[in-house]
Amino acid sequence: MIEVVGFRYCRLGTADLEKTVKFAEDMIGLEVVGRENGCVYTRGDDRDHNICYFQGDPTNHTLGLELAGFDELDAAESNLSAAGLEVNRGSDAEAAARRCMGYINFRDPSGNSIDLTVRPFAAGHRYFPGRDAGIDEFSHIGLAVTNPREAEKFWSEMFNFRTSDWIGWSALMTFDAVHHRFALFPSDKPGIQHINFQVRETDDVMRSNYFLRDHQVRIQAGPGRHSLSGARFLYFYGPDNMIYEYSCGVRMVDDSWRARQFPVNDASFCAWGSKPDLSVLEDTDTAE
């Protein structure tokens, strides 16, 4: 089993790099920490970076996860290759562009691009935001998968992810004490469906709700409270229709936690009554 020890970064192509970076700074509240070789590195916590934007196909997404060391990286490469997946070892220059000492890349059974990194860089100075949104952690993503049941099996058998809860066929999965690091979303194509930043308190969620609305940013859902994780949330659209989320108060789970099954309905998504677009959770082929 491949043991993930950290949740590190997203790499996102964008149709308009400068517009996207401005949105990241001015609307989301991220800090730009570097510009190199056409890439712009941004963050919302004290890691080296959380999101790397580059000019390119807006569907070109990569998720970066952390392994404990080079022995674990070698073993992961062997295990993934033995499972029939194509694995590529990054060059020193490619590792430098990912701000780590080494990595491999593979595509999961849905086609999602995944980097497994070793010794990703820490930052020598604290996060200083473009605006004070109250962000204190890059926390999780929504991952688009073509078959949520098979995706759940892959991440729980090949990796140390475990399911915290289900909503329909979509599993919310984690490798540590946070309720979820992945939320698996049924889709006909791979990609990162949304990106979550934790904020300090409910006041931060509400302040951003009014701030974003005042700046004509389209709200996707919320403010609300997730029935599964207990987190107070706000989802909103950025450039290229990427969805971003602020949340706070996420539930912690341990080995004694027993996953629960929720139906696909409004109450399962939000305990306060926010009306989300639940079509992203429909997967009639799998249900059959």
From the structure above, extract its key features:
288 residues; nine-stranded mixed β-sheet; alpha/beta; 2,3-Dihydroxybiphenyl 1,2-Dioxygenase, domain 1; 36% strand; disordered C terminus; 2 domains
Short description:
The chain is α/β, with parallel strands linked by helices. The chain has helices spanning 17-28, 70-82, 92-97, 148-157, 202-214, 266-269, 284-287, and strands at 6-14, 31-36, 39-43, 51-55, 61-67, 87-89, 102-107, 113-118, 135-145, 162-167, 170-174, 182-186, 191-199, 219-225, 232-237, 243-248, 260-262. Helix content is 22%, strand content 36%.
Question: Rg, please?
Answer: 18 Å
Percentage of β-strand residues: 35-45%
| CATH superfamily (homologous) name of the largest domain | 2,3-Dihydroxybiphenyl 1,2-Dioxygenase, domain 1
Mean pLDDT: 94
CATH fold description of the largest domain? 2,3-Dihydroxybiphenyl 1,2-Dioxygenase, domain 1
User: Can you name the CATH architecture of the largest domain?
Assistant: Roll
Overall number of domains: 2
CATH class category label of the largest domain:
Alpha Beta
**What oligomeric assembly is this protein in?**
single chain
Distance between the termini: 30 Å
Find the structural class using helix and strand composition.
Answer: alpha/beta
- Low-pLDDT stretches: 284-288
Helix proportion range: 10-25%
Outline = globular
Largest sheet: 9 strands, mixed
Q: What order do the helices and strands follow?
A: EHEEEEHEHEEEHEEEEHEEEEHH
Q: How large is the count of helical segments?
A: 7
β-strand number? 17
